[in-house]
Amino acid sequence: MIDMMEPRHFRTLFISDVHLGSKAAKADFLLDFLRYHEADTIVLVGDIVDGWRLKRSWYWPQVCNDVVQKLLRKARKGTRVVYIPGNHDEFLRDFPGMHFGGIEVVERMMHDGADGKKYLILHGDEFDVVVRNARLLAYLGDWAYDTAIRINILLAAVRRRLGMPYWSFSAWAKLQVKHAVNFIGEFERVVAEEARKSGADGVICGHIHHAVIQDMDGIRYINTGDWVESCTAVAEHEDGTFELITWRTLASTVPALTAIEMRDEGELAPQAA
Fold first, then answer.
1. Does the model's pTM come out above 0.85?
2. Burial class, 242, CB count within 10 angstroms (exposed 0-12 / middle 13-18 / buried 19+)
């Protein structure tokens, strides 16, 4: 049995691209993560709910409710929870400034870091030409991504039975496509430039499911990743430093881990940056 851990407390937690309502979402891992990570402020950086998939086929297991209830409970207990909608939960963009159960909805925000630096926070889909200008192509890309995720689940199950470590086919396939690699680099450059135009020292975003903390020509670029493949979040410490956290273990009990089919059985792997 894995020992219970003391919750870690941060100044701010940034989470994006959970895609609740998608069968590929690792909502159980996020719920587990939220049990062991507290913060004064939690910023949900878009695509928390996957409205696109829910429109096609309704899928909302109890664990999705559990994640929502966990966030609402944190808000009731004093955590500031801010929701910045993305393209998959764009229906919330009709409610800027509204509060739902203590969760505040905003289109984008400027975050004042503990070290005095300012960070522009947005989902990032407005800089994705495909999503912005060709919705049909975006939906086709979404379908292709779903297919890759299904392959990923099958391969993960086979590798686990063979005693092999977890490996993400979908993440690998994405990075093998030259166009995708070029897109990621261009996306990072354009988003960093938007932060510069806004007078910010850095930018925190999601959307492309590629977690990273890096400096780009004097701008700190931070992408929170996702909870479909990488299961990552970004945390701000009390001194203003940022940490990229990868959560790949249900830390409460071994039975809870083995009861969930086709899941990664890796170890906790926090990364500081």
1. no
2. buried
What's the pLDDT score for residue 128? 75
Q: Which two tokens stand for residue 247?
A: 């959560």
pLDDT in tens, 236-258: 999 999 999 999 766 544 333 32
Q: DSSP 3-state assignment of 176?
A: helix
Nearest to 98 by CA among 112, 87, 84: 84
Enter the tokens of residue 196.
Answer: 């510069």
- The residues, any chain, with a CB within 8 Å of residue 35's CB and separated by 6 or more, are 7, 70, 251, 252
Residues lower than pLDDT 50 in the chain: 1-3, 130-138, 140, 177-181, 252-273
Q: Whose CA is closest to 156, among 247, 265, 257, 251?
A: 265
What residues form DSSP beta bridges with 214?
221
